[in-house]
Amino acid sequence: MGALMSRYLAVLGRQAEISSAELEAVFGGVRQVSRGLAVFDSDILPEIARLGGSLKLAVRIPVTPLEYLSDIESGKITLGVSDYSKKASRKTAMMEALKLKKILVRHGRSVRVVEGNGAVLSTATSLHNGLSGRNPRKVELIKTDEGWYRVIGVQDIDAYARRDQARPARDARVGMLPPKLAQILINLCGVLPEGSVVLDPFCGTGVVLQEALLMGYFAYGTDISERMIEYSEKNLKWLLSNSKRLFSGHFGGCCRELGRSPREDGRERPGPEKTPFELAQGDATSHQWQQPINAVACEGYLGKPFSKVPTEMEVKEQKQECGAIIMGFLKNLVGQIEPGTPVTIAIPAWLRESGEYERLEILDLIDELGYNVNNKSREGLLYCREGQIVARDIIILRKK
Ligand SMILES: C[S@@+](CC[C@H](N)C(=O)[O-])C[C@H]1O[C@@H](n2cnc3c(N)ncnc32)[C@H](O)[C@@H]1O
Prior knowledge:
Shape: elongated
CATH topology of the largest domain: Rossmann fold
CATH superfamily of the largest domain: Vaccinia Virus protein VP39
CATH architecture of the largest domain: 3-Layer(aba) Sandwich
Helix content: 25-40%
Oligomer: single chain
Bound molecules: S-adenosylmethionine
Structural class: alpha/beta
Strand content: 25-35%
């Protein structure tokens, strides 16, 4: 008998198109029903901790909200209501919550209503009131024009902050890839079997590798800088020794034996070491990687950091420098991966005085190298904060 299909709703992050693309790559059939909401059907339970771009996940309830709440086992109910319907306001959300409370209280139940500042509860409010779906008596219901949903997961902002800020080796000069974006880059490669090898050929301090490990993949990183390899190693070892305590990470099935060179003194080495990651120094434009490579997810070389909008000349120089490294890398990679292998890469785009971003125009060239470009329409996959000078332009490829 097949698993049961359910309808899920995702509250999308600030950059909704990127969040929606992530869901599409993992679940398929995603429909964006408004700017910040998407729905999809799945027969596997989606996990919020694996999705960098979704703020909340909820499942459709097949009964009325009152029937759903009445079925909750005895004890005090904590209830939050977020209203995403067209006519929503703080008042409509509160009225729904209070109406439900009144009826439940009449039937002898004790209910506390969580108040928000608007029609919907913020991620922090949901999280800090325990409305993340773990406790069946602490419930957040979401009203939409298409029906009611129950929240099953809220993005754990504290866990992201911990693994971003607590890792021992950080380097402001190589930029700080947010762990959420690293997850998105990996997920844009599609669903990969546990233990798949995810390569980051520009691994820097290892944010993509960290997230790959937490998702149950084998993390394979290379970087031109020996210092960055040391940083990645330090960070991955730290993650492995803290994963259970800090992140409930799991590393099952993703170890492989490392290739080892013979000892110089000719004596036998101790038994093979098993780790779920491998690191090596190497120039991405010429390095020969070990096989297999099941997916490539990386933030490529982003060029010089800028504190103000660069001049025309500066942009021209940066486009040449970054373009040569990225194209050199993709040319080197194409002969080393199997057809169909996904490659997701964040490349730089520069803010201009007009407020628009100037992108590296390399998609046609990439196509000629032997990759299918999945998001050639170029809409929406620029990841940046308001006014950020070097934005990350996400491109999604697959070897032809
Ligand atoms: C934007 S950073 C990536 C940061 C990384 N995502 C992290 O988590 O820290 C780009 C990295 O590319 C590396 N790099 C630059 N040119 C390279 C090349 N030709 N081959 C490999 N790595 C290169 C730099 O040393 C740097 O670590």
